[in-house]
Amino acid sequence: MIQTIAFYLFATLLIASGALTILARNPVHSVLWLILAFFNAAGLMVLVGAEFIAMLLVIVYVGAVAVLFLFVVMMLDIDFAELRAGLARYLPFGMVLALVLLCEMVFAVGAWRAGGVDLGHRLGATPADVPNIEAIGTLLYTRYLYIFEGAGLVLLVAMIGAIVLTHRARSGVRPQNVAAQNRRRPEDAIRKVNQPVGQGVEL
Amino acid sequence: MTAFFQTHLGYGFGWFLATLILILIIALPLMLAVAMAIYADRKIWAAMALRRGPNVVGPFGLLQSFADGLKVFLQETIIPSSANRGLFLLAPIITFTIALIGWAVIPFGPDMALADINVGLLYTLAASSLGVYGVILAGWASNSKYPFYSAIRAAAQMVSYEVSIGFILISVVLWAGSFNLGTIVLAQKGEIFGIINGFGFNPLLFPMAVMFLISAMAETARAPFDLTEAESELVAGYQTEYSSMAFALFWLGEYGNVLLMCALNATLFWGGWLPPIDWAPLYYVPGIIWLFIKISAFFFVFSWVKATVPRYRYDQLMRLGWKIFLPVSLFWVFLVSGFLMLTRYGAGA
Q: CB 3.0-4.6 Å disulfide test: which of A42, A198, B130, B349 passes with A54?
């Protein structure tokens, strides 16, 4: 009973926050609705027993990606008039996207009409008493090992690419060199002089 | 208790009511602990600065935190006219709530966790990574310069240190063989020579324990990493525009997070509710007392560091996180997994 209530709660909130992501006028509010949508998706994942995926969704998307995304949006200087001016230009492209989405929805409804989804029949066919993490780990590190490592490699390339693109060598910057600071001893910096009165010190 | 309610009220509703009561059993003493932690923090800080600290309200000033609480409760809530009203009020609530939810998976004794879930450690990681939202939203919604600077700093700082915390936790998980916090505590039983409990006593994992403690300070934005509220630069950081209960919620949330991090330190590396030595008479002391002693010890360390270590400069903070902690913790994941392959699982396996 409680599971059913929780499902409908999460599902309703997910759809509502998804809709509000698009409808909110303020882009920061949009991102926040998106974050709420992530949360509710994580809740749905927990309900189907995929708690590992749910936690990853929260840690990776909500905890890291959305934070940076939120920041970019906060820093943007958004001019609403300019935003509306672009509407006519992007309208055809938007219509195409909307049409594709409509087709997908029709297919989805058709698939739903074709027969009920059997929730008891898991695709992964793992034993019920194996924890999520073990089941995923076993699959990733045996059957899908090369694909998994390939995905890791793609991410590595993307990371290096991002660093190369954003890094620029600037002249005139004096970064802190901690090793040099630690190597420096009092003898390198201090000189004792016992100068007679009336004579200057040679610097 | 869940079983008792379920026999009388039916499965679903009994579970719901039992969970609700258990949440209150955890949250109410936690609030009391936070009040006492604030008092203890001020006392320790004062003692190290050769001052007396709060000593007027109640015996030894013990009721100081409650007097402060009453004071902020009676103050006027000021909302800046150009602030984003909804988010401005939501931000402290988020900070406070997220400081509480992490406690759901902390084991207070054998089978004494509110939610004994398989992904317990990931859950705490998720909860701690959400803490940044309160700060960011407060900084942005205040519509004021210093809070926004503070929000920028907080976002970068927390995301940076989460990376190394993740790797540290991975080495603990590898050693314990589970993500479940209860199992991790039990795996620490007799870690050294079969008598000393705690991963932290293991020379291979001790550096991780130290790094986790430092990362925990950075994650909770405590001194010496309290750049988000560096008063010499940012007035009071993201809290600048806040007053009354909204401010108090930030305060409570911050200390709730600190206590949670202390509890995690104790649970992951120093045996949690297990006594430090695996010796039968020590088990007569309830596990929750051991955990309480360990949390208090770590809280003292947090206060001690706050009283003695000068604040980091921001670039130094980033350097420590990305150039020292991240490579070392990454290397340690290799080291630990390699060691385990050699000793526990067999090199050929």
A: A42
**A93 falls within a domain:** no
Tell if the CB–CB gap between A59 and B159 is shorter than 8 Å: no
Predicted confidence band of residue A149 (pLDDT cuts 50, 70, 90): very high
Domain that holds residue A152: 131-169
Is the residue at A161 inside a domain?
A: yes
When CB atoms are compared, the residue of A59, A67, A68 closest to B126 is A59
Other Cβ atoms closer than 10 A to A184 = 11
A28/B140 Cβ within 8 A? yes
User: A70 and A142 in one domain?
Assistant: no
Say if residue A70 is in the same domain as residue A145: no
Do residues A1 and A75 both lie within one domain?
yes
Asked whether residue B105 carries a pLDDT value surpassing 60, the answer given is yes
CA-nearest of B87, B76, B95 to B229 is B95
Band (A126; pLDDT cuts 50, 70, 90): low
pLDDT of B329 reads 92
Would you say residue A139 lies in a domain? yes
Average pLDDT over residues B266-281: 83
Q: Does A49 touch chain B (CB under 8 A)?
A: no
The amino acid sitting at B121 is L
A28 three-state secondary structure:
helix
Residue A51 contacts B, CB cutoff 8 Å:
yes
CATH of the domain at A38: 1.20.120.1200
Asked if B126 lies within 8 A of A133 by C-beta distance, the reply is no
Number of domains in chain A: 2
The predicted complex's ipTM stands at 0.78
Q: Tell me the CA distances in angstroms from B322 to B49, B74, B215, B216, B327, one per residue in order.
A: 33, 44, 12, 15, 7
Partner-chain contact A132 B119, CB within 8 Å? yes
The Cα-based distances of B183 to B32, B56, B67, B227, B278 in angstroms read 28, 45, 41, 36, 16
Of A23, A12, A42, A52, nearest to B130 by C-alpha is A42
Q: What is the pLDDT of residues A57-95, one digit of tens each?
A: 888 888 878 888 887 887 776 666 666 666 777 788 888
How many angstroms separate the CA atoms of B251 and B249, rounded? 5
By mean pLDDT, which of B20-24, B230-234, B250-254 is the weakest? B230-234
Using the Cβ of A71 and the Cβ atoms of chain B, whether some distance falls under 8 Å is answered with yes
